[in-house]
Write a structure and sequence with these properties.
With 678 residues, the chain is an alpha+beta fold. The protein is 53% helix and 16% strand.
């Protein structure tokens, strides 16, 4: 590809590698600054040598890429808030005792069953200035409490450090929060919160107030709640109140990208603004005014949508497109894409680890690269047929580009995505146009009846259609395993096959064949590894007891009588089986004695059935059995005690003290996560 010869491509790759280096290695800030200075001096020295016609082309390239690499590493290190000296994670006993926190609400998140959730910025701890973001959970109660973005709150409580997943192969929520620079959570009761008299009125306050005003005016106009929540997600990117069943339907139908404001939505906005600005004269001054209005409109929309990674990416990308369009300069779309990547990651390197950001760029890159190849396969003369053919080719290009990532993160594939997109995308143009118009007018306190009703009905019928497609579950491929080596090999296969079709020669054909062989080898390696694995796991499931015994690719689950029926639909079990390329052989009721790889495992539950003359290696306690643990330990002498999450926490504390006195290891799944023998 000629694009790879563009220096910015290699500079961007070096910059991203620097971010990854800093993310995984975590170098200290002074060291990375010293290395950056050295690389700057080296670059300047080589630059002047290059300028003096000594022509050190190779050294100049090395110096440039090294500088880009260490700029990326420095950017990631500087933007890692945990490395800042005044971050709350450096405060003594911060996670041990109660403290008085003052904080400012920054963003409203989706509520849980019991709590309202916000991202908050810490201002001080016990009167001392500090910084950092936390996740604030405010317990719901029967009274109405109004918290708005910008509120300064004073709370006396303790904060909890994010804990990693406590079951195998679960989504690592702690890592997800860490990538967003959130390292702890704070839980508070509404009556314990003091609201400050001063509201911090910054950009977050005004955008939240604008969204609230629009939503309240639409609610007053009797806009149906379900359709309103979908409209807010489509137009403003706010998914906090959308029905989980609707989100699932969009996922199963292959249209979940519609609910996240992305390039598709921003493209509609730019087209809409361009259409409105057509009467402006195409003079130098007129073009400049058009440019300012277009870019300002895009960024205003981006701010309203919460500046999520996909929104920032799309707005930045289309801002450069607008600059090229209104200044009448031909722009290479790949270069525009690269500049947007570089600028976004320069200010927010953590976006690189955001799933939406990765999917957005993968989709956009393959649409730009692959869609023209598909479009050239058939060129219908009829305009209507050509329009739908273009939608279909765009949809296929995006799905091919995001397929490995989607399977890697979500382990499923919607087989009818092309039908969904060919119907929904034209429909979405109408919804976006009407939605922007209605919400702009709602911001000024007027909701016109007929446009609002048309918008509501359009969303209603779109939801119905997507619900129908999602109901055809036989076309949804679920629980597809894919590990990191297979992800990389999958992209190698896709890219080399496309290049082989573009450039039909022996080299590209061999490259495609080699990548296919690599993918096959990675699949064989994964299968071989699974076949030679055996493990016994005590899961951490609240109020339940679940054990997994796996021999190679075959797993057996032991569980309480009351939850045996739920085992097949368990998302926890599904994620475990998928990640380990395994299948469920059978499910059985719990028993008192297990034998695994020479280990004798005794399980005691509330029935208190204890076999005689048993000296187990592992003692598993479940369902809070009423026993004298000290006497029992002296009798059976196990090597380790395991207590799962079905036991009361107060009982577990007593057991932990007893085990410490008896010098026997104690493993609580509540604290340490699942217990594993392998």
């Amino acid at each position: 590809m000629k694009t790879l010869q563009f220096p910015l491509v290699r500079i961007t790759i070096a910059f991203i590698l620097g971010i990854l280096f800093s993310y995984f290695v975590k170098p200290i800030l002074p060291l990375i600054f010293i290395i950056l200075v050295i690389s700057c001096v080296f670059f300047i020295r080589i630059y002047y040598a290059f300028k003096a016609d000594t022509k050190p082309y190779f050294l100049f390239g090395i110096a440039t890429y090294l500088l880009a690499f260490f700029i990326g590493a420095t950017t990631q290190t500087v933007h890692t808030e945990a490395l800042q000296p005044n971050n709350y994670t450096h405060c003594k006993h911060i996670f041990d005792n109660d403290h008085t926190f003052t904080l400012t609400l920054r963003e409203k998140l989706k509520n849980t069953i019991y709590n309202e959730r916000y991202i908050a910025q810490l201002n001080s701890i016990d009167g001392e200035k500090t910084s950092g973001k936390i996740l604030l959970n405010i317990r719901k109660d029967s009274l109405a409490h109004s918290f708005i973005i910008g509120n300064q709150l004073k709370i006396n409580s303790s904060i909890n450090k994010n804990t990693s997943q406590k079951n195998p192969n679960q989504f690592d929520y702690a890592k997800y929060l860490e990538n967003k620079q959130i390292y702890a959570q704070l839980y508070a009761e509404p009556n314990e919160i003091q609201i400050g008299s001063i509201i911090e009125k910054d950009i977050w306050y005004y955008t939240a107030a604008l969204r609230t005003r629009i939503i309240q005016n639409l609610e007053k106009s009797q806009f149906q709640t379900k359709e309103l929540n979908v409209a807010i997600a489509l137009i403003m990117g706010q998914q906090q109140d959308i029905d989980p069943e609707i989100v699932q339907d969009y996922q199963y139908a292959g249209a979940v990208h519609i609910l996240s404001v992305s390039g598709l939505h921003i493209g509609f906005i730019l087209f809409f603004v361009t259409f409105i600005l057509k009467p402006f004269p195409n003079t130098k001054k007129g073009l400049f005014i058009k440019l300012l209005i277009a870019v300002a409109s895009l960024w205003l929309f981006g701010v309203m949508a919460g500046l999520a990674p996909s929104v920032v990416r799309s707005v930045t990308m289309f801002s450069f497109v607008a600059i090229g369009q209104y200044l009448r300069r031909s722009t290479n779309i790949y270069h525009t894409l690269l500049i947007s990547v570089l600028l976004i990651l320069l200010f927010q390197p953590s976006f690189l680890f955001d799933v939406g950001f990765q999917l957005s760029y993968a989709a956009l890159f393959f649409i730009i690269w692959l869609q023209p190849l598909f479009a050239n396969l058939w060129k219908p003369k009829n305009k209507i047929i050509r329009y739908f053919w273009n939608i279909l080719t765009v949809s296929f290009a995006a799905q091919i580009g995001t397929l490995p990532l989607s399977i890697y993160y979500f382990h499923q594939f919607p087989g009818l995505f092309f039908i969904t997109n060919i119907i929904v995308i034209p429909f979405l143009g109408l919804i976006m146009s009407l939605g922007v118009l209605v919400m702009l007018l709602a911001a000024f306190g007027w909701v016109p009846y007929y446009p609002a009703k048309t918008l509501e009905l359009s969303i209603y019928f779109m939801d119905k259609f997507i619900g129908f497609i999602a109901s055809l579950e036989q076309f949804i491929l679920k629980n597809i395993p894919l590990n990191t080596p297979q992800l990389i090999c999958s992209y190698l296969v896709i890219i080399t096959i496309i290049i082989a079709f573009q450039h039909k020669n022996i080299k590209t054909t061999w490259a495609a064949l080699l990548s296919i062989v690599m993918l096959q080898l990675s699949l064989i390696a994964a299968k071989w590894q699974v076949q030679h694995q055996t493990e016994f796991i005590v899961l951490n499931t609240s109020k339940k007891t679940q054990l997994i015994e796996r021999n190679g690719a075959i797993a057996t689950v032991y569980s309480n009588d009351s939850i045996c029926k739920e085992t097949k639909t368990s998302s926890l079990l599904a994620s475990y089986l998928t990640a380990n390329f395994s299948s469920l052989k059978n499910q059985s009721h719990l028993k008192n004695l297990f034998y695994f790889k020479g280990n004798k495992i005794l399980l005691i539950d509330s029935s208190m059935v204890i076999p005689k003359d048993i000296h187990p290696d592992v003692l598993v306690l479940t369902q809070s059995p009423k026993l004298n643990l000290e006497r029992l330990l002296q009798s059976i002498k196990p090597k380790i005690i395991v207590a799962d999450a079905s036991n009361y926490k107060s009982v577990q504390k007593k057991w932990a003290i007893t085990c410490t006195q008896q010098k026997i290891p104690f493993h609580s799944t509540n604290e340490k996560g699942f217990f594993q023998i392998n």
